[in-house]
Amino acid sequence: MSHLPILPILIPLLGGALSLFVEHRRIGTVVQRSVAWVFMLATLAASILLALRAHEGPVLVYLLGDWPARIGIALMVDRLSALMVLTTSLLAGACLLHACSGWDRRAPHFHALFQLQLMGLNGAFLTGDIFNLFVFFEVMLIASYGLLLSGGRGVRMSAGLHYVAFNVAASTLFLIALGMVYGVFGTLNMVEIATRVAGIPAGSLPLAKATIGLLLVVFCAKAALMPLYLWLPEAYTRAPAAVAALFVIMTKVGIYSVLRVGSLMLGEDAGPLAGYGWDWMLPAAVAGLALATLGVLAASRLRVLVAYVVLVSATTLFIAFGLRSAGTIAAGLYYLVHSTFVAAALFLIADLVRRGRGDAGDVLRAFPPAPGVRVVAGAMFLVGAVSVAGLPPLSGFIGKTMLLQAIPEADIRWAWPALLGSSMLVIVGLTRAGTRIFWKPVPVLPALPDGPRPVRGQLRLPETIATMVLLALGVAMSVAPGPVTAYTRAAAEQLLAPSTYIDQVRAAMPQGRRP
Amino acid sequence: MSVVWELLLVALLLVGSFFVLMGGIGLVKLSEFFKRLHAPTKASTLGVGCVLTASVGYHLFVGSDPQPRELLIVAFLLITAPISAHLMSKAALSLRMDEWPQLPGKSDEDTHVPPRPDGGDDEGY
Amino acid sequence: MNTPELAGIQIFGFGLIETTIGIAMYVVGIAMLLALWRLLRGPTVPDRILALDTLNVTAIAELMLLGMHLQSAIYFEAALIIAMLGFVSTVVLSKYVIRRDIVE
Amino acid sequence: MRWRRRFLPSLPLTLAIIVFWLLMVSELNAAQLAMAALLGLVIPLYATRIDREFARFGSLRPLPKLLVVLLWDILMSNVRVARQVLSREERIHSSFIWYPLEIGNIHGITALACCITLTPGTVTAALSDDRRYLLVHVLDLADEAALVADIKRRYECPLMEIFP
Amino acid sequence: MLELMLALPFVLALVLAILRDAPAKAVAWLAGLAPVLALAVLAWLTPAVMDGQIPRTMHEWLPQAGLAFSLRLDGLGWMFSLMVLGIGALVVLYAYYYLGPREKYRRFFCFLLLFMGSMLGMVLSGNLLLTVVFWELTSISSFLLIGFWFHRDDAREGARMALTITAAGGLALLGGVVLIGRVVGSYELDAVLAAGETIRAHELYPWILGLVLAGVFTKSAQFPVHFWLPHAMAAPTPVSAYLHSATMVKAGVFLLARLHPSLAGTDLFFYVVSTVGALTLLVGAWNAIFQHDMKGVLAYSTISHLGLITLLLGLSTPMAVVAALFHILNHATFKASLFMAAGIIDHETGTRDMRRLGGLRRLMPYTSALAIIASLAMAGIPLLNGFLSKEMFFAQALEIEGHEEMRWFVTIAAFLFATFGVAYSLRFVHDTFFGRGPRAVDQDVHEPPRFMQVPVAILVVACVAVGIAPQWTIGPFLETAARGVLGDALPEYSLAVWHGVNTPLLMSFGGVLCGVLLYLGLKRVLDLHAIVRQSQGRMLFHLNIEALFRLGRRFTHAVANGSMQRSLLWLVLVAIAAGAAPFVAAWGEPREPVAFVSQPMVRLAWVLWWLLVTCALGTLALYRYRLLAVLVMGGCGLAVSMTFVALSAPDLALTQLLVELVTVSLMLLGLHYLPKDSPRLRSLPRRLRDCAVALAAGAGTAGLAWAMMTRPPANAAAAEITARSLPEAWGSNVVNVILVDFRGFDTLGEITVFGIAGLAVHAMLRRARMAPEKVMPGPPIKLPVPADLAQMMFPLTLVVSIFLFLRGHNSPGGGFIAGLTLAVPLLIQYVIQGAASVETRFGFDYIRAIGAGLLIALGTGAAAMLFDRPFLASGHYDLVLPVLGTIPLASAAAFDLGVYLVVFGSTMLILSMMGTLKPSKTMIAHRGTIDPATRSALTGEAS
Amino acid sequence: MEMAIASGIGVLVFAGVYLVLRARSFDVILGLTLLSYATNLLIFSSGRLVVGKPPVLQEGMEATLANHTDPVPQALVLTAIVISFAMTAVAIVLAMRSRADNDSDHVDAGDVRDGREDRG
Ligand code: NA
Ligand code: NA
């Protein structure tokens, strides 16, 4: 039998566990990094294979413990899951490369935490059991706490506290919702829930709605949908660069979950629950888009700006998915992948700027980056900004165009102004940031007699390559968007036909047991 | 025979719960910590001991668990309860909640300041 | 296994032993609430520690009574652990009061 | 002797573990006996790392009597405490006394502390640093000297035999 | 071939970007190669285009979105390509001389070629989406070019302004194009051009038109967004010469011409486009008179001429379109030459301020001559090209049919255009080349290098040639271009200098006369040099942008103020809303009676209820005194555990108890480093609000829980699990079987979480030094009596732990509970003996324990894969030994061993890290020691 | 019984939420702990309340839900307890670090928006 679906979870787990054994100073960085890379590349290879397999069409079902899905835990891989896993692996590769320029030595347990974070992310995308989803959410979150806080101090701690407390509260809510799910539906397998949703008696309808509503609230909180996004900017901007870049995918986990739950439990076949909650999601997304865009304008630091850009893309995705047509979802998925890479690259660039400018950090004020940094970072920033603002010819434009094209006639009236207007203002914000950071000359300050010279970091090769890799992924997506869009289109169609998905999963039989 | 057993169990239970209640009442009623300390450490221990013993007998007869495992708990409680009390009074002493007599054989050099729980002599540590 | 039977004495139509267990549960329950009162009331920290300790001990009794009531031995482990942990928590809390630093 | 100390650091402990295990599992068969023996051998090796003196008994002869006395005293003291609890509080004259120790073995002191706390209206509150005095809180103190003598006779002397 | 032509600028731009340390000359040569070679390609294609063929090429890019890389070279595209490449080549030549020795040649030419390529791509594009792509690329590359001297404030501002406005227009255009695609069903230009009727008849037409025009007008600097153009003059002059004469600003009118067949022909189009064009024309021309900067004059003049072109395209008659195209060409030639001339003057004198110039005629005769001729062309003086297209404009203005008021308006506008044009040209010529001067110029002024004049000369020659012999010189080209727009509707027209005396001619002469008079009059009446005109557009833009940023800041700081309390409050509120909404919505609907039998209260339930509720509320009441709150919360934990026991969940109770103890220990460890109590919150409204929110949350959760519990259960899966637990998973403690088998994957994740928690805590505390809040004086305390007891307990607790572990599969217990139970005696040792003593004696490597545990669990799960079963498939084997009997071996036990190790390792790691913190060296000043005499017995703290 | 459990959950949530909305890190942690009690009870009660039928199979007693309570929620609660505990541990340590590094145990300590990290 094929163990492919579980490999993206097990490989990083193994990598993380082994990393703990090579951490000692005597063993040296080379070995640590080698271990990390072996497992990273293996995960990447598994993700690629998985994506190829998933693209063949049928849902891959992996019955853990050889129990039927209704009583055990099953992994279910459709195109969407595989796409998310692949995106994660690609992103993680770049982040690891960036971290290998030095951060991994300063943050205790970095490699273990990184691999386990990867495990959590992949697990969340692959699992077909809603409680198992919670578990992987937690793996991912606690690893992210570790990554955020390891090697940190000062304000990062208080930002971390905010992040941790909010997520713990959200997880508590998740647990309440899960309790309700089990109490109402008597199962935790998402497909089984989907089949029971339609048959829910009228008297229990409000309860079922409340249950799923709470689930959606949790996912929206993780995805930073309005008004539950307030935790995001600080956490992301205080994280070390490689970690912040990896965090970009974390909001996507929330979005993925909304999409999955929406497809299975609130889809066409969900009877009285079909479409429940989506009506609220669109206004929230538009309002969130507006606020995120204003945040881009308001940002006083480059990393805050990028964090808000992440929010802009997340809310844009909610608009795309909220419209629930194959076209918008396909466009949204393309946009999701693109925005992940580009926003991550922008975080890395912001960090480069911050380091390159020494004490000035990434404040949007004139301050000279170290020579070399200005040119390289400036060029990369230009590419990233063009891409993220949705300007041609890069991936953002393609994503946004496909989205504009796919938005149904009836929704154009509000969706277009929202999307185009936000693009416009993001351009304004990015332009200002870029000109201030890379163009504005330094005001001549009176020289301090014995003051400390600003320590300005230099370019480091792995960092630059990592950033370029991410940007190149975005560029590749715009040069040859065909395969990606074909894939996302197929994924969207698969998502909108939950009944085939459900049938395929229910047809999966244990190998060595009675079904 | 079984009537005797049953009556014995009933007695054990009644005595046990009575002592447990005494512990509770003492805890509430007495006026200061060191007095209160007496009630639960003794009464509850004995009370719980009785209940546990009754439980052993009861399960033995009902057949649901014919082993005297509860005795382990009794032994455990009998050993730990005094030590707990010891520690709690130490805590109370450290908060200067009461005056206690001068340690015999020590000089009066610290008459106004009550001695530390261990006599104020650090060498014994 | 052949186990001896209890006599099954009846009082006012109820089993004597059953009734006694019930009464004991109420009595021990009252003791628990008294300890609870002390826990909330204080006034001093050691009083509260003492109350918590007493709560633990009475909880063991209550659990064993419940085990008798339900004729189940499944409560043994819980009682054992409560006994063990009650002691440990008393140690930890007292140490905190004495030194503030529970691990020196 | 050295061999024994190395592989069987504390026989009482080993025995205690075996009994404890068998009581816990509530089964008596070859497998459980083997398991108990295994634990009884292995755990002390590990536990001795705490590096304190392990129980070495002098004579166990006074033990049964001590236990009976103790049980009786526990019962009596409980009745007394119950009475005092139920009576008016003004009649209770509580006080601290320093109890002079003769026993030096720490296990003995611990056991004595247990005994004192479990019995007539007394609670040990502290041990002096030189381990020569126990601070005892007496719920209703009538005669300090009598109390000290009582404790000494009933508990400390037998304990000194058990833990020399 | 088209691909090659288009690729040339991009490829050479890339080459330039890669080249390092190349000399300026080589860079310029390489840059010049692009337009020259591309021109060669264009020349090669020209015969075909002249023949009326349309060379095409098409590559798929994103067929799903209708985006294709399709290029086509029709007449219009040809004309614009010629302009882009021809003037581009001249600009490269000019720029080589213009740029100073210290300038970044490489970057300049790289950007210039990028722009050239984008512009070329736009005019060649055969797919509207591709047009948008190149359109925005011109915006981006022009942004880089305008901001080339980015150290200057005006350059940065001009660049940002240009980008903001043109990119906004680009987004609008994108919208318009997508709408066109919806209406037509294709973005291919051929299809769109053929579908004019459909588009105009469609209900979306006004939207399409509005969005496309928004793009066109912003790009071509039409009123009222014209103001970005003068500010773009902060660019180096070659850039201005290129962007603002022939290319960038022409992109808008190009698109208008391009989509003319599809969009034009309605009243809406006519009115909107002509009105905007006419207004722009007037505003630009009038403002041009009052500029003192040479480039300022040229910029406003450009606005005015762009207005003219727009107006002509708005009039929409075939002849007007021809005139528009003709004027595009003419304007490109004279304006490019004028910009270059202005650049030369700036280069030589160091200023472009006409108030400081004058008399250059004598110092720079050649340049002056060229500039004067070009200016006259700009003014529309006969025998120069500007005159011809202006005449055509007048004729068209007079021939407007059916819209009487528009005819008057346009005619007057045309006349004013001529008048103002003459006036500002006159001022430009007079102030610069005549009179006294140059004033206040301290440079030695002379002619520029010869080759710097060459481009100007070529362009001026073109002006003159076209002006004298239009039919020979420009005729065929214009016709080709016009056919590209009009197709078969090409009108009969004659390009001649002399059409006889007619109204347009009279208007021309009148215009010239009035212009001269106006200039002289203004000069007499006003002190032209003293007038300083602020750009209102700039101010407005500035104000608006600033307002926008302010709005953003205000909103963001008001909403996302970084407050964690607010984050959490929103979470709670949204959750309450989500939970309550369905019930509120279903309020009044008939409820089915719930068939439900309530469970009777357990005997001790009332005690537990009181315990739970009172302790919860007690924690709340005492929360400010943290130690007390922790104590009271212990009661809560006990109540919850006992509830679990009472309700048939012994495993849960054990776990809860153990976790409770460790949590309390952690809290106490933490309290050592945290303030002893919380300050009182003064704001009563805030407290009431929080109280109300908390009440709603509590009531809501209680209601949900109650509603859920009173439904009949749907537990088929649970029944199946219970039934299959023993025969297939060989365990009778079903909860444990679920944990290690049915849902073992959850457990794997759970121990991963637990392990990571240990690692995270270790990472956070490893090097941390912290000052305890308060310390008790004196050395560490030893507790001989409890220590002795703990020592005796230690081995016995180990036995309990092993017991719980081994029995877990069949009775309450299991790896997790056992792991914590193992940690408890060690915790006691830590507390009583101190961390150092324990760790030197045991020397655990807790981190490796976590790793080993994870590996064991993982390995157990993966072992199934060797047998070709899925991960975590369990195995079972009864080992029969001679004396001991049957010993059951289950893979689940191995898995549980992993759990055991991780739990133990992680718990101890956390406790050990928290217990062995070193005091801070620097922060100790903030903290103090507790005077034992002042401790309060009520809280245990210094009072 | 259901009413008792539901009201208990409600009170725990009430106290927990109120504490979670406080401004000091330790109070928030207390609140989260109370909330985790509530969630544990709620998940547990999703298997409905059954007295005296623990899901431990015994000989002679058929393995059905008539004889045993629903085991699944119990397993879920176990996982939930463990995870909440891990989170609490991290939160406590984080509160300590934040207090030590930012000189305040306010949850928004360290002037988060324009922190010293940037002022240099
Ligand atoms: Na278990
Ligand atoms: Na410590």
TrEMBL record, chain A:
It is a multi-pass membrane protein. The chain crosses the membrane at residues 6-22, 34-52, 133-151, 163-185, 212-232, 239-260, 280-298, 305-326, 332-353, 373-394, 414-431. The keyword Disulfide bond does not apply. InterPro entries: CPA3_Na-H_Antiporter_D (IPR050586), NADH_UbQ_OxRdtase (IPR003918), ND/Mrp_TM (IPR001750). One of its GO terms (cellular component) is plasma membrane. Residues 129-422 form the NADH:quinone oxidoreductase/Mrp antiporter transmembrane domain. GO terms for molecular function: NADH dehydrogenase (ubiquinone) activity. Its main location: membrane. GO terms for biological process: ATP synthesis coupled electron transport. Pfam families: Proton_antipo_M (PF00361). It is found in: Cell membrane; Membrane. Keywords: Cell membrane, Membrane, Transmembrane, Transmembrane helix. Belongs to the CPA3 antiporters (TC 2.A.63) subunit D family. This is Monovalent cation/H+ antiporter subunit D. It comes from Luteimonas granuli.
From TrEMBL, chain B:
Pfam families: PhaG_MnhG_YufB (PF03334). Residues 102-125 are annotated as: Disordered. Residues 106-119 have a biased composition (Basic and acidic residues). This is Na+/H+ antiporter subunit G. NCBIfam families: CPA3_mnhG_phaG, PRK12674.1-1, PRK12674.1-5. Keywords: Membrane, Transmembrane, Transmembrane helix. InterPro entries: PhaG_MnhG_YufB. The lineage of its organism: Bacteria, Pseudomonadati, Pseudomonadota, Gammaproteobacteria, Lysobacterales. It comes from Luteimonas granuli. The keyword Transmembrane helix applies. GO terms for molecular function: sodium:proton antiporter activity. Signal peptide: none annotated.
TrEMBL record, chain E:
Residues 67-109 form the NADH-Ubiquinone oxidoreductase (complex I) chain 5 N-terminal domain. GO terms for cellular component: plasma membrane. It is a multi-pass membrane protein. It is found in: Cell membrane; Membrane. GO terms for molecular function: antiporter activity. Residues 789-908 form the Na+/H+ antiporter MnhB subunit-related protein domain. GO terms for biological process: monoatomic ion transport. Keywords: Antiport, Cell membrane, Ion transport, Membrane, Transmembrane, Transmembrane helix, Transport. Residues 125-401 form the NADH:quinone oxidoreductase/Mrp antiporter transmembrane domain. The keyword DNA-binding does not apply. The chain crosses the membrane at residues 76-96, 108-126, 132-150, 162-184, 269-290, 297-315, 321-345, 366-388, 408-429, 456-475, 495-520, 568-588, 600-620, 627-647, 653-671, 691-709, 747-765, 785-806, 812-832, 844-867, 887-911. It comes from the Bacteria. Residues 611-676 form the MrpA C-terminal/MbhD domain. Residues 686-776 form the MrpA C-terminal/MbhE domain. The keyword Metal-binding does not apply. This is Monovalent cation/H+ antiporter subunit A. It comes from Luteimonas granuli.
From TrEMBL, chain F:
Keywords: Cell membrane, Membrane, Transmembrane, Transmembrane helix. Pfam families: Oxidored_q2 (PF00420). GO terms for cellular component: plasma membrane. It is found in: Cell membrane. InterPro entries: CPA3_antiporter_subunitC, NUOK/Mnh_C1-like. The chain crosses the membrane at residues 6-21, 28-51, 71-96. It comes from the Bacteria. Its main location: membrane. Belongs to the CPA3 antiporters (TC 2.A.63) subunit C family. NCBIfam families: PRK09094.1 (NF006573). This is Na+/H+ antiporter subunit C. It comes from Luteimonas granuli.
